[in-house]
TrEMBL record:
InterPro entries, A to Z: MdtP/NodT-like, OMP_efflux
Signal peptide: 1-18
Key words, A-Z: Lipoprotein, Membrane, Palmitate, Signal, Transmembrane, Transmembrane beta strand
Name recorded for this polypeptide: TolC family protein
Compartments it resides in: Cell membrane
Family assignment from sequence similarity: Belongs to the outer membrane factor (OMF) (TC 1.B.17) family.
Keyword Transmembrane helix annotated: no
Membrane disposition: Lipid-anchor
Amino acid sequence: MMRRIPSLLTLPALALLAGCSASSVSRPNLTLPRQFAAPPEAHAAGAEALDRWWLLFSDAQLASLEDEALAHAPDARSALAVLDEARATRSKALLAYDVQGNASGSITRGQTTISGLGGAGAFLMAPAGATTTSAGSFSPSWELDLFGRRDAARQAADADLTAATFTYHAALQSLTAQVASNLFQARGLSLQLTEARDTLRVARELADIGQRKAKAGIGSQVDADSLLADRATAQANVVQLEAQLSVSRQTLLVLIGRAGAAPATLAVDGALGAAPDVPDATPATLLLRRPDVMQAEARLRSAMGTLRLDSLALLPKFTLQGTTSISAIAGPAGYTTSLWSLAAGVAMPVFDRARLLGERRAQRARAEQAAIAYEKAVQSGFGEAQNQLATYGADRARLALLTEAEARAHHAFDGQNAGYRAGVVDLTALLTAERTWRNARTSLSALRATTLSDAVNVFKALGGGWTPLDPNHPVTSFPDQKP
């Protein structure tokens, strides 16, 4: 059974499509799986915890790194600059519908000289001498918005700004997730390095025992060489993990805005805490928080506003035009003139009509693409949340099983090691027990880091990492329209 989610998020964009004709833009198909079709709770308990989900880990270093990244990371500063550009672009788009016009002025200085003129003609000429001519004019114009062009432009500009705002939030959301994932990865490598060094210590002890037994004639040289090979392998594993940890630290430093610092300046231990529970709120509610879904919805509103604006471009434009000018001449025969006028104008597209119709058809296609992109964003968002929740649940169950397996493997190795030292257990049994324990320990350490990263992915998939707007107070208002 399939149901449609009654999401508050879908109402604004669908309101734009409600008044459109069947030949205009299709309604997005928001059919979703039944498990995600629960009615959303506007203020679900626990949803606010997703705003700063990293605090749920009760990890002081993680919280500090997240704050540092949000304040200094290049990604955060770049996203803010893009948002500032969008704000300026919105203001510029709306100013085009205010009163337009420029003032101009000029000053001209000249010299008049009269020669070779006598008789009555001399009385008809202006007196000779220096003259200064000052002139100024102001010609404002204003379009009478009889058809709602300004409203359509505001709708598109507001939607573009809203989309840019959610792009900004998405950048911060991605940044915080990367910081946490890289920190947990670094800690996992640190823990594996500690365990690898412990393995190397044991391998060295066993290699020494094997050499002594071979020299004493109570052990074979083949067994001793096998233990030496294990020691070399353990040493190589330590070198590899040290390099990986250094790279992971440097990556984390770049993310938080400290790219120039040496990796050793970032302290990373192998402390991997327990993964937190997901806040108690319905997935439908939490997915209303996803910036990518809200961004797609805003882009649909922008496309619909632009389509409406392109349709209105086919209608005539009525303008009021005023002109004021003044000119003053200072000199022997100075005088001042002034002029003002007020006119009404109308402009109707004639030869441009075919081009405007083509642009409207292209914009309708772009609006259709935006509707499909919105549909895909919603469905992909729910699909991602479903997959991440399933992965997180499975890995937490595996973590409990591997914890038990590692403990039993460790106990078995301790017993075989004691028996080998006492000479009652052969080398093959010891190495088998040691490799079983080592593999179980490596798998457990990797899974602990992976489970923490899974939690990060779940919080990101559910829209955590930013403070959403109140769904009862949308960013902008937009009426129904018929493009």
